[in-house]
Amino acid sequence: MYKAAVIGAGYMGSAITFPLSANNIEVNLVGTWLDEDLIASSLAGYHPKLKKPLPGLVKPIYWQDMASAVEDVDIIFIAVTSEGFVNVFSQVLDAIDKNYYFFKLTKGLVEYKGSVVRATQAAHDMFKLKFPTLDFMWASVGGPVKAVELSDKIITASIYALNSKNLKDLAYGFSTDYYTITITDDIIGVEVSSTFKNVYSVVIGICDGLFKSTKEGMYHNFNAFLFSQAMIEMSKIAEKAGGRKETVFDLAGIGDFYVASMSGRNRRYGEYVGSGENPQKIFEKMFDEGEVAEGYLALKIGIEWVKSLGNNLINETPLLSSLYKIIFNDHDPIQELKNFTKEMSNRYRKLNIKI
Amino acid sequence: MYKAAVIGAGYMGSAITFPLSANNIEVNLVGTWLDEDLIASSLAGYHPKLKKPLPGLVKPIYWQDMASAVEDVDIIFIAVTSEGFVNVFSQVLDAIDKNYYFFKLTKGLVEYKGSVVRATQAAHDMFKLKFPTLDFMWASVGGPVKAVELSDKIITASIYALNSKNLKDLAYGFSTDYYTITITDDIIGVEVSSTFKNVYSVVIGICDGLFKSTKEGMYHNFNAFLFSQAMIEMSKIAEKAGGRKETVFDLAGIGDFYVASMSGRNRRYGEYVGSGENPQKIFEKMFDEGEVAEGYLALKIGIEWVKSLGNNLINETPLLSSLYKIIFNDHDPIQELKNFTKEMSNRYRKLNIKI
Asked: What range defines the domain where residue A207 resides?
């Protein structure tokens, strides 16, 4: 029987322990230095974010004991925020001297050696520096999974993007009757989806924030227009990055973006912005309360990454550009979204449709 | 300046008069024999479904005066339910003796000459029987447009699928600063999307109905899984019918399905079913109250249509099959959706993913 360590004791790290335990996999749940309270509380029998006790097979562990916590396991899940990813993975690599099956729950891009890259690219490079001759066995996990719901055993489907067929049976083996798993080889498609669904759900939140108090439920047309355009842009980004559109137009993209648009921190962050809060200040306020709007961070570094993909991709993502202007250039949300609409209208008219 | 007649004075027929009027197009809004109350009320200054007066350029007209109402116009919008479509269009054809620009707002499949076909197929056949030498100039209108919101001037994007380039400038000409229009030649893709988003939004409603009272907001993972699978199935149906996936993965499909999943009659119908109402009885009750759940009708005849497309398409639409069993074969909603999940899990495992 396999044993696993999960690095990061926040929402997703803790939630994944439920299907793992259901499959009789013992889990060392290692909190980072930011998770001390979560570990203390979990040891006392209650996880404060999931609002319930963790399964019996889970052992909450403080960061200081990370090295021994990964020593006798076969599988390592990385479930920290994108901001902490490079630092944490580097410390994990320092602590190990054999190979593992890695599963990444982190979503987003990372800054690595002066560039913005996908987390998997950074991890691959770091791993090969330490273990030049070992196979890097890595999965990026995506799909519509709200952590609390998973821990409540709500039916959930997740997509595992694998770089090695050695991970295939292992990944399927994490499934339960409420946790359905599908696999793909398109790591790029899954990673772009996971990152940009967080970004674009901010704009869905902005739309809600703009209208919710004055037009209850009465702006779905606009939201759907934004949702549809976001999907188009996400698929273009994924394709340009080397992934596949089909991945975006399935669980990893549509599914995950749908769930992120319904609820969650990024959407909530957007709602605050739409209702007039200062984009920087409200991000920091949420951050201080332990609620990291990953979409903000992903947008901040993602816009440059999109530009770096070349071929004028940035010109094909007008919604992304408008969102950036709202969040980082002080553009008024409603005015900017009206500009976006006008821009789309002009683009539609210029389409060369043969009829 | 063009003049238009809109046939059908329900939600969508009345709502389209707002952007038309904004473009100085005079509109004869013709109610069918089922719309007498709507016309009477509109004449008195208030449209009871849109809950507001119609624009000044709109003339509400009773069915008995349909022939004269279409006589001096250039454009005819058809905005009746799919059930009434063939009958109404046939009467319109009887009343006219010249060509028009037709725009279809009706969504769904129709029964025509003993078969189930897309409404456009029926209309084309009927038109050519009457006018064998005239060009059939026809647009199927799709995209995420809730009628009340359009009449409230919420930003809305719509896609017009045209069979003739003569309609191009005309269609763009209906746009306003709140009503953005894009065009395509993929009538099939738009029609399949418009029809099946109504069908699949029933299952989103069922999921809500099942859980809403007990797990407030706590079933988004499951809903997103269903949403994503619905999109996949819709794209397969469109492709098999001769349309394009890209159309489904844009405003016509994703956008319209998103808005239908947020709110509307089909979703509400599904909610009733999920909360335990008898699927037939509650459809009839809503129908009697003037609220037609088009998704129910489309599913009823659509399942046979999907089968008729051949190549085992029906085996690639397991969610559609499950929904049919819930609505028409008395299957218990939660048990059937669990069966669907198990089925998907098995299918995922059988996928031949090369890694």
From this structure: 188-350
